[in-house]
């Protein structure tokens, strides 16, 4: 997420009421998770295991729970609870906007878009030309729907990421300030759910088609011209390249990449990254030929 | 789909701006896919593999991309892109009606039906006596719900078929002009999705009960007194006969038949037609006894 | 379900127009299924196999289809169709209330709760302080949502139990008069469905988090600080103890108990009760280590 305007390290330390290390006038212009950071970004780290990666990342400002040596050109914000501090910054820069309107007045709907009288469009959401938004669809704040796109009834675009920090006595929610970007020429079936990115974007690529009851997790990128049949579920932070087909009820674990042109047969469970151009089956999914041979072997042995 | 009135072959050729072969005054009265055609119907074919089947089908008018010999009593419309031409005819005879009303004024709701103030009823939809339509349900255009039927909240009836032609650079959508017919004494759970037929009807038989989050694909026929537990998904063009039970999270591939009285155990994946009166398990599903024996064999071998 | 006020055995026999055995002035104060009965409750039994259990249960009044000896301190209502009679009592004491209002005037919404202008709140439902109810959520009659709870768009709370008696020619619905109780500090994802109890309550425990498209059946009790990923489905009458994790697309059969701290890996199908503190996998689910070894054995044998 980009900030509305840049903030200095000292401003940030005052906001969080914490110490800082680094140049007072260092500027931060965005806020992101570690796997998305760009120069100018604020990031957080709270486990020594990830200190080095984070300190050496592109991030400009690092919220950290230990006084460590500050890398050149960066700033540190020393805070007991970096996760909580990160949430504080999100709340400050993109405070949760609960719309009191079915169609929020800050949304932008193209005059050639069709929006059913029961659909909801949140704050700062954008609906493109010739998009068709069916009954009871909910488009969350800051999400966008491209031109020539159809979204069927009762679908939810922009629900929060399923992302918590496990504390001894509760789960602490990481506030989602990212977006869902639905490119153009897309069709999303009925009763689907697409979560927003935590700080970045969940993206559905041009020309992709989803059947009903499909779930897409936060920060996942779906390529162009993919086909997902009904009840497919893809977890967060997944990269699905172009022209991937997933048949009915396929599931996919978080943080993996599915190569271009891969075909995943129905009911498979993807547990690791898969190379493109091949057909997969099973749970955990492997090459279909091998998995089907295994089933034949078992059938033979059982006789 | 039946046309509002019959059209001559010459009228159709003018509509599509294409050549024709056959009697000028031949009448077409309907439009259908090949597996549904009846005498009087218009159908399309664009692959030589299916030319014979289509030319010998009950269809009266065939949109085809090659000049072939015209069977007696039939007419041909010669068009480079039969799929696109078929869509043009659907758009002409049943133009997409996007309602601007929550309850479309052309819908017919029985005075003894109960419709929640947040439910949507599309153009020409019909709701029968004593039907109960819960919050945020969407009943699409031309769909019908029989008497004594309950539809729980957030369910979508009449979303479009998931049906595309793969072009080199995009998926071309086959426009759905069919309906969903929900007969009487039926209960449909919350957040279910039932797609309309492409040109024919998706049918849910009398006395059948669905739990929540069930998906039914286009043109599928579900028999009488079936029980589908939560999260079952049945693809398009499936025939499920009477008194079939599918337990939770069962999936079923397209174009198969499930015989009367079959029981499919939870999480099974149906990959072929199944005979009635038996119990099935596994993915791909087989007779439960055999599949459970295979699992026991594997457990034994692994020790 | 508790009755609004106690009824005597004779009042009940008059209501049902049936014979009774026992003291005329015996009082009934509630109505429940056999697994939930407490002293004061009315229960029904219609199969000789369950006569003894029911007659010896805590129930005070038993609707039964055979004249049997009446246990001391209890009353019997002799009725040909106890199931139908039970439904009659539910209809009498808690008649189905179909709200004509988006926000029913008998609901109680805390002034600090945020309810989206498209969400529905049914009769006598209660929404706690700082609860956030997103677009198109449906909260059914008599259900309650605790403080600091978030319910994402298009979720259905309080759909009816999927519970029928199989008659030769139809399924007879058992009318659901129970509730859904969502305790505090809970997050429920988008397009989830939580069924109400038949006569008791479906309960979601404090601090528990659900991702999208999760289904919970009637009378199921989910403990505290559980995490359910997307598309998990748990059937009716299940007890899930505290701190249980179910990953994506896990399914769970009815009437089992999942022990505290159990972790169920993605796509598993739970077919029996599972002890706490362990990790499970497969369908049917077993200890993950054993199941993964079986898969390795099969892969080896197939080479």
Q: Main attributes?
A:
2 domains; 303 residues; UDP N-Acetylglucosamine Acyltransferase, domain 1; eight-stranded parallel sheet; alpha/beta; Udp-n-acetylmuramoylalanyl-d-glutamate--2,6- Diaminopimelate Ligase, Chain: A, domain 1; homotrimer
Task: Describe what you observe in this structure.
The structure is a homotrimer. With about 300 residues, chain A is α/β, with parallel strands linked by helices. Chain A folds into two domains: about 90 residues, MurE/MurF, N-terminal domain (Udp-n-acetylmuramoylalanyl-d-glutamate--2,6- Diaminopimelate Ligase, Chain: A, domain 1), CATH 3.40.1390.10; about 190 residues, Hexapeptide repeat proteins (UDP N-Acetylglucosamine Acyltransferase, domain 1). Chain A contains four helices and 34 strands. Chain A has an eight-stranded parallel β-sheet with strand order 7-10-13-18-21-24-27-30, with no helix packed on it. An eight-stranded parallel β-sheet of chain A has the order 9-12-15-20-23-26-29-32, with no helix packed on it. Chain A has a six-stranded mixed β-sheet with strand order 1-3-4-5-6-2. The longest helix of chain A is centred in the C-terminal third of the chain and has 15 residues. The radius of gyration of chain A is 22 Å and the shape is globular. The mean pLDDT of chain A is about 95. At the A-B interface, α4 of A face α4 of B.
């Amino acid at each position: 997420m980009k900030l509305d305007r840049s903030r200095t390290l000292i401003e940030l330390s005052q906001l969080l009421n914490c110490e800082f290390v680094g140049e007072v006038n260092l500027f931060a212009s965005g806020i992101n998770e570690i796997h998305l950071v760009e120069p100018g970004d604020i990031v957080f780290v709270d486990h020594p295991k990830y200190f080095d990666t984070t300190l050496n990342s592109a991030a400009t400002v690092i919220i950290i729970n230990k006084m460590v040596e500050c890398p050149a050109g960066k700033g540190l914000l020393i805070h007991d609870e970096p996760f909580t501090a990160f949430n504080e910054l999100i709340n400050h820069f993109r405070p949760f906007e609960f719309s009191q309107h079915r169609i929020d007045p800050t949304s932008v709907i193209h005059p050639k878009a069709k929006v059913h009288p029961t659909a909801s469009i949140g704050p700062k959401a954008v609906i493109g030309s010739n998009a068709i938004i069916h009954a009871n669809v909910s488009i969350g704040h800051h999400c966008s729907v491209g031109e020539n796109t159809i979204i069927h009834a009762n679908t939810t675009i922009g629900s929060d990421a399923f992302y918590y920090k496990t504390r001894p006595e509760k789960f602490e929610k990481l506030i989602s300030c990212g977006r869902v970007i639905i490119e153009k020429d897309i069709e999303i079936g009925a009763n689907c759910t697409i979560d927003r990115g935590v700080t970045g974007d969940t993206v559905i690529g041009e020309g992709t088609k989803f059947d009903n009851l499909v779930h897409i997790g936060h920060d996942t990128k779906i390529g162009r011209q993919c086909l997902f049949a009904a009840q497919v579920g893809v977890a967060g932070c997944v990269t699905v390249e172009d022209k991937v087909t997933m048949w009915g009820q396929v599931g996919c674990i978080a943080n993996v990449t599915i190569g271009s042109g891969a075909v995943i047969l129905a009911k498979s469970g993807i547990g690791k990254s898969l190379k493109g151009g091949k057909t997969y089956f099973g749970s955990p999914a492997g090459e279909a030929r091998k998995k089907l041979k295994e089933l034949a072997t078992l059938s033979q042995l059982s006789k």
